[in-house]
Structures are given as C-alpha cells and as structure tokens.
Amino acid sequence: MRRRDILAAGAIAITAIGAPSWAAAEVENNVPPFAKPAKDGAPTAAGADMYGMIGKITAVPGKRDEFIAILLDGIGEMPGCLSYVVAKDTSDGDAIWVSEVWDSKASHDASLALPSVKDAIAKGRPLIAGFSNNVVTAPVGGIGLPKQR
C-alpha cells in the first residue's frame, strides 16, 4: 500500500490547525498537525478530557499529494496521540482534512517540539495555500479511542 493512501480523514501540516490553538499557531507559525496513533488502548485518566482538532488545509495547486506525503512521512512516535488521520477532500483537488485526537491538550502542545514534527512543518510550509474550517473538539469516545473512566 502506498504511503499516500494509508490514512483518510482529517486536515494539516498540522499539529496546530483548528480554532484557537492550532489556528493561531498555524497563522503565526504555519504549524501543521502530524501524529502517529498510540495503540495501547489504555483508558484516559479519571477526569481527563481528550483533546481533538479537525481542520481543512488547502495545498498550493497541484501539490496536494506531495504535501500529504510530507505529512505522513512526518508521523513518528507522538506521545499521547490517539488518532491522526489525513484525508483527501473529494470535492477539492487541492484540499485535505486532518483529524487528530490526543489524550490531552498538553500532549498535543508538546508534540510541536518533536524533531519529526518540526521537520515536517519546515518541509510542508511552502506547499500550504491556506487553512479553513478549523475546530477544536472534546472527543468522548469511538472506535479505536480509549474509554474514559
């Protein structure tokens, strides 16, 4: 299976798109959200809220697949990342969606300092035309996500 076809459902260069947290970071730093899902299935700590982001990233015309490859290559060990999905927008040939779920906002924020994320941001930044439809969410469960206590 080709690396570009592996993931399917979320938006950027991302570990920073969204509304408040990633929209601000993206606009200021062109920071993208990348992450490798944790597979341990452990429940989140009592009282802890998961942190999510969903956003649309538009690539420079004709550069979507190249941008996706950079995002997917930038995925590494991301402590606290429960899900990271990159999907092609079926109605816009230059757009992708990135969906992220983290065990906490602190884990997301810490991921921005990881070398693999910094490298992906540097490589992907020139291929980004814009960000839109970015929201921060509070995931409560679903297939592949831990059960909250």
Q: Can you walk through the features of this model?
A:
A four-stranded antiparallel β-sheet has the order 2-3-1-4. The chain has helices at 20-29, 64-73, 105-111, 115-124; strands at residues 51-59, 81-88, 95-102, 128-137. Mean pLDDT is 75; it is low at 1-47. With 149 residues, the protein is an alpha+beta fold. It has a single domain (6-39, 49-137), classed as Alpha-Beta Plaits (2-Layer Sandwich), CATH 3.30.70.100.
Summarize this entry quickly.
This protein is of the alpha+beta class and 149 residues long.
On the 0-100 scale, what is the average pLDDT?
A: 75
> Span between N and C termini?
36 Å
Strand order of the largest sheet: 2-3-1-4
Largest sheet: 4 strands, antiparallel
Percentage beta strand: 15-25%
For the secondary structure, the number of strands is 4
Q: What general outline do the C-alpha atoms trace?
A: globular
The top level CATH class name: Alpha Beta
CATH architecture: 2-Layer Sandwich
Unreliable segments of 5+ consecutive residues: 1-47
List the defining traits of the structure above:
four-stranded antiparallel β-sheet; 4 helices; disordered N terminus
List the helices and strands and how they pair.
Blueprint: H1 20-29, E1 51-59, H2 64-73, E2 81-88, E3 95-102, H3 105-111, H4 115-124, E4 128-137
Antiparallel strand pairs: 1-3, 1-4, 2-3
